[in-house]
Write a structure and sequence with these properties.
The protein is an alpha/beta fold and 529 residues long. The chain is built from 17 helices and 13 strands.
Length: 529
Amino acid sequence: MKAALASVTRIRDIPGAIAALGLTEKDKSWLARIQQRIDKTKWDSIVGWEVWEWLKPHMPKFAFFGEYELLPSKINLTDLANRVTQAQTWKAQNPDQPARNAPKVFESQHRGVLALLRMADISVEDFTRPSGYEPLKARLESVSIQLTDQILEFWKQNEDLEVEVDIKTDPSDVAPFNNGPNLYLRIKNRRHRGVSTPFRQRSRGFTWFFSFLVWFDSVQHQLEGNRELRGRDLILLLDEPGLNLHALAQADFLRYIDDLSTKHQVLYTTHSPFMVHTDRLHQVRVVEDRVKVGTVVSDTVSSSDPRTIFPLQAALGWTLAQNLFISERNLLVEGPSDLLYLKALSSILETMGRVGLREEITIVPAGGLDKVVTFIALLGASGLKLAILHDYKGRPEQKLEDLVKQKLISPKAVLDASQFRDLTSLGKSGRPSDTEDLLSPGLYLDYFSRTFEKQLGGKKVTETDLPPGDRILHRIESYLAGAGTPLRPSGGFNHYAVASKFVSDPPESVDPDTLARFEALFRAVNTLF
């Protein structure tokens, strides 16, 4: 037998190769098993078919979502039942026909409502049975609670919403809604004392998110109901999900995708920077339509078309902007000079064993009071802890008071420089003051003179040289204007240059009053956080 089988390269050729041989009973039993393997398939490769049969139960099922069907605000259940009957009748009469040849009796709204009823374990036939309204109402209320809990787990834009599903008749409505029971889908807003609105009158983003949850639950139900597919891994293919969602809602949907990915593989396409996890750029694949090549999918962005990688650049830009606030606790100041003085004095105090600014508090220079107000208005609701230290002009800042009235920031978190200038009345706003006024005049003027030594011709400016006034910066600028010594074409002088000199060449000793002012300031800020 070995000689007869020596030239055989396929299992299918084995019976013919040994047909003329005298076989033992053991050989005949072996040949019968070979013939059984051959009879199971028409594939040329028996081994190839056997490998495929082993792999097939382990192959994941693909589910593609390209058109996202929205649920309606209401639908007539009698009409829906008739459509279900039409579809079932056609299937019974045409058992060998593929589903794609069936007449189009269902529109997207019908499929959506059927999915919703499936979640409540209700069939369309239940509405024609004499069991009554109450059992169906109870099940619908149950699915309403389930849907509310599910959507609010991920939808954080308004957590005062409730889903309300009801059934009732309305003979005065237009056809087909005047014939039998209608199913109504409404959204109740607890924020407005429970006022409810028809489902489709909510924002398109919310209706899309809600419809997707219902639709996907239906897909999972169908997979579990199919014996061949039950328990199979599922790969979800989503084409441009979240198009109708604004930036923060897209972030909510990303969290939902993350939740799905614990059970299923999820692949989605997007042009939106807000649908990109910037901490998982290794998962991103760039899709390009290259001339004379065609569609190319790669993980290389260095050679990609700028238009293709723009969403990635925008996503990184957004992340960088968010990370300007690198801690939960942030002290907003008007300019970089303030940051330098606060950092320098905090270090000096800490080396002396006194109170400096806590490490976890980040000082953020906003670039002027107007921008400080904008920062608070835009980011005050982002879960960040914010405080403000601003220059004081001798009267309350209306823009800051408006933020307090709008409850965007606590009044205790709005500090000004004058509150720490007079050591006998700390915490009370007094005369007009800048952060520089917390330094003793002699200390500030020493660094001013050293910074502009060349322009001043080596002159050491002292406080007796300055005109009277409350703010050291204004007094110096008035002095320069009167002395005819411009330090820059636009007048005045570069405040940042002095602060930079202070930080790069810190003083060997600082007078007690200056230290006491800044220590009081740091104590106040630390207490706020």
